[in-house]
Amino acid sequence: MAAPTVNRQILLAETPKGKLDQSHFRLIEGSVPVAGEGELLVRTRLVSLDAANRAWMQGATYRSAVEADSVMAGGAIAEVVESKAPGFAPGDLIFADTGWQDYAAIPARSATKMPKLDPMSHLLSVYGIAGLTAYFGLLRAGRLKDGETVAVSAAAGSVGSIVGQIARIKGCHVIGIAGGKEKCDWLVRELGFNQAIDYKAGPIFKTLKAAAPHGIDVYFDNVGGDIFEACLFNMNLHGRIACCGAVSQYDGAPSPHGPRGVPGMIVVKRLSLQGFIVNDYDDEREKALTDLESWVASGQLKVQEDILDGLENTPKALIGLLAGENRGKRMVRVA
Amino acid sequence: MAAPTVNRQILLAETPKGKLDQSHFRLIEGSVPVAGEGELLVRTRLVSLDAANRAWMQGATYRSAVEADSVMAGGAIAEVVESKAPGFAPGDLIFADTGWQDYAAIPARSATKMPKLDPMSHLLSVYGIAGLTAYFGLLRAGRLKDGETVAVSAAAGSVGSIVGQIARIKGCHVIGIAGGKEKCDWLVRELGFNQAIDYKAGPIFKTLKAAAPHGIDVYFDNVGGDIFEACLFNMNLHGRIACCGAVSQYDGAPSPHGPRGVPGMIVVKRLSLQGFIVNDYDDEREKALTDLESWVASGQLKVQEDILDGLENTPKALIGLLAGENRGKRMVRVA
Fold first, then answer.
1. Which residues in chain B are closer than 8 Å to A272, comparing Cβ atoms?
2. Whole-prediction pTM value?
3. Span B6-124+305-333: which CATH code?
4. N or C: which end of chain B has fewer CB within 10 A?
5. Which CATH superfamily is domain A6-117+305-333 in?
6. What CA–CA distance (Å, rounded) separates B263 from A273?
């Protein structure tokens, strides 16, 4: 194979003030970087698309902000082309923030070696950040107990679709909240959710109350905003809310205020809210992966992936994800 | 002593829509009730005034709402006049929800026998709901660790003034938030707070940031609203917010929205919010009282009480408390 010479890179051309669109991105052809000492030259294979990508454009979160005119940040599965670090060899698969580009030179310490799995995409869905986020968010942050009533928003998304299925495996009554009848039907028919509520059909408070007449014990929040509020007011005494994300607040001007009932309802119902990101539970990663693998093997956990092709389609993939067009884990196959 | 014949009672004449004032109350002279089987006839001695009294008028919380034209509800220290229940005798002191009246007939099971202390008022302040709420809220809900940075709102109030002092005893850096320079000076000079911020002097976000340059680890929230928001944005990673009350939302039309950054900031900083009421920790009551007594005995914990005289002044006492005119635990001496 001839040495690669062109490195397609997608830049965040401009920090979006409102809704993200194609004009905020620019594709350029840069040069293939050279790995320095302690670095790896990697070729991007599968880019992970996440609502968090949009949040990074708003400012510092658990990572620094993505600035205009730099390569758009993003996690990916990549293949080592050249290694100048011990422990890595050409052909190894890694997970790292390569950014949206064909090639990246990254410090070896920021790369996580990945097993070779078929399909490789499972490394980004059920055994990747999505699966582990669902697992830890529900079981650790949410302290789920068998048989409880669970609600999850963005339920047809990469994390939500796994949250609901794990809760079913744990014998819980599961209510999914998603946009559109088609997604809702799919949650119930294919993924075994007990009920699904279409938030695009109107305000959900009453539907939710009818779906959970004895209240919600654990709400897994991916969206914030009005849906967070509707769930907050349907929580049971000593309920738990696992705060995973707030996608309703990412794309467009953030709402000037948060939901009503905070913190009043938190006192009245003695709720616990726990914000978390998946890395908070790194110590228990192996146990989580073992559980996820056994559920996939037994057919109790269905893996839903939504793969687009071509680096140039990455902006479109993210814009569509923010509009809710994906089911399950969205990614872009680059090579 | 001749048998009492008149029972002064203060009714909630009307459920307030906006700010509470005297017109919402009415004093009537009723008859002294008769204790039935299993009941106690008690004489009210000291009525406890709490911001929660106002919240009860808004609807069901952890108790049912106080309805218009009924005796205003409220906890009090009372003396048993007649007992038709085993375990209680005339002269015993109890704590119960007697309501705002001279005499009440109450089921013995809803009365808690109290030791005879001098001064009796300590049963409502440091060894009562205020002291225990501060203790459990800070140490259990807030999971305080020695040496952390703590912020507390309504810091000159019954709960807040004890929260700050306990945090100092635990070697923490304590920032109080209170209304007015005089209260703030008192918090620092008399109670040993490290700093105090006057929220009436302007928005507190920047002052708070300057007071806690390394961020806040535990915020004890008594007020909700804008102060909650300012603290939320100054929290450290893995900070904890003990949600005790939301007095800013009780008196007047409740704000249509909650603070910004909920739940977004909860994720970014992996905060824990824990709503609680003092009864959630009944099992550990003895240990708490032992600690509080030893701190009072050693002079590390100063007891601040604010006692008014006369049942007829109870409405004024509550209205004033909601306006922030008290320091420490407010109560009304009835007999």
1. 272-275
2. 0.94
3. 3.90.180.10
4. N
5. Medium-chain alcohol dehydrogenases, catalytic domain (3.90.180.10)
6. 9
